[in-house]
Specification:
Layout lengths: L11 H4 L9 H17 L1 E6 L4 H4 L5 E3 L1 H8 L6 E5 L2 H10 L4 E3 L15 H10 L5 E4 L4 H5 L3 E3 L4 H7 L4 E5 L2 H8 L5 E4 L12 H10 L4 E4 L5 H6 L2 E2 L2 H11 L3 E5 L2 H10 L4 E3 L13 H10 L8 H16 L1
Parallel strand pairs: 1-2, 1-3, 3-4, 5-6, 5-7, 7-8, 9-10, 9-11, 11-12
Length: about 325
């Protein structure tokens, strides 16, 4: 696609701390094409915090954690939404924007946590614990959301659990998030055994080694990490909360116990902070690239569809969360 003098060239200053100059020319053609295609198609790109910097900082219109994307998707003034993230995020965007075309650049961009539970599992949990409300993490399929009472994210899970006024709740599917929330509330939490393949690999021993190697480092952990990791950290919170912490406190040196592109993206905003990177990559997030975002816009692929009966029930669970 012919373009005017490269728009991408003007974006490099923003990401030069995290993308080497030798790599940048490989991105510029796709960036220019994507920016032109967005204008032509009245499209926006929603990008999760775990996307690589050339996506997150150079072509995305809305960025953030799953809660931020869920909220902002509702007010998007566009005909087309491209979800630079994993499959359940594209489903959530479609749930909240049923009249818009939602595209996911790679249908294989899944999630180990979402794959750990099915709607049938939720129904069995209801049979085992009759009358106990089901809180489902947004990192799940639309079918699982539809079988639930209300959704939550890592950023609002405690608030959602306590909003129900119940003495105990079923919280699915992330076992570690459930256990970390249980430590903060008097509500009894019944957990599932799902785990995120990125966050479950961190350990408290990792943090102790980091503190020994980098004296004075501030350690921030995601609540999908095991409870011993959260206990060893200086702060635990969602990806948005970790980013806000860096912005507020500006630690001289920090480590984020989460997917490593998150560190790159926050580092762009805070050049004065030294980021130590104990890098665990999410293979599913990394299936999204500039090339397949461009192809999604050029070829209208892959269109997200959800069975209407499932969508109506799943939407209610998400909307209940957003109403809190």
């Amino acid at each position: 696609m012919p373009t005017s003098p490269s728009t991408a060239a003007s974006l490099y200053d923003r990401v030069r701390r995290v993308i080497p100059p030798i790599e940048w020319p490989a991105f510029t053609g796709d960036i220019d094409a994507i920016l032109a295609l967005k204008r032509e198609r009245n499209a926006v790109i929603l990008a999760h915090n775990y996307q690589t910097p050339e996506i997150f900082h150079c072509v995305a219109d809305i960025v953030g954690d799953s809660l931020a994307l869920a909220r902002k998707a509702m007010s998007v003034d566009a005909d087309v939404i491209v979800l630079a993230g994993v499959h359940f995020m594209a489903e959530t965007a479609k749930l909240l924007n049923p009249g818009k075309t939602v595209l996911i650049p790679d249908l294989a961009a899944g999630c180990s946590l979402a794959d750990s539970i099915t709607a049938a599992d939720v129904r069995l949990m209801r049979q085992r614990y009759p009358g106990v409300p089901v809180v489902t993490y947004v990192n799940t399929s639309a079918a699982v959301k539809a079988a639930s009472d209300i959704c939550c994210t890592s950023g609002n899970a405690l608030q959602v659990v306590e909003s129900l006024g119940a003495p105990r709740v079923i919280m699915l599917p992330d076992e570690y998030l459930a256990r970390n929330i249980a430590a903060q509330t008097k509500v009894e939490i019944i957990a599932w055994k799902g785990h995120c393949e990125v966050h479950e690999r961190f350990s408290s021993a990792d943090i102790r080694e980091l503190r020994e190697a980098h004296p004075g480092v501030t350690v921030l952990a995601h609540p999908e990490c095991p409870p011993d990791v959260v206990a060893e950290a200086d702060f635990a919170g969602s990806t948005a909360a970790m980013s806000d912490y860096v912005g507020r406190h500006k630690p001289a040196r920090v480590v984020l116990m989460t997917e490593c592109s998150m560190s790159d993206n926050v580092a762009v905003e805070h050049p004065e902070v030294d980021f130590v990177r104990p890098c665990n990559l999410c293979p599913h997030m990394k299936r999204i690239t500039l090339a397949n975002i461009r192809a999604a816009l050029e070829e209208n692929r892959h269109i997200m569809t959800i069975d209407p009966g499932v969508a109506d029930r799943a939407r209610r669970a998400v909307e209940r969360m957003l109403a809190i």
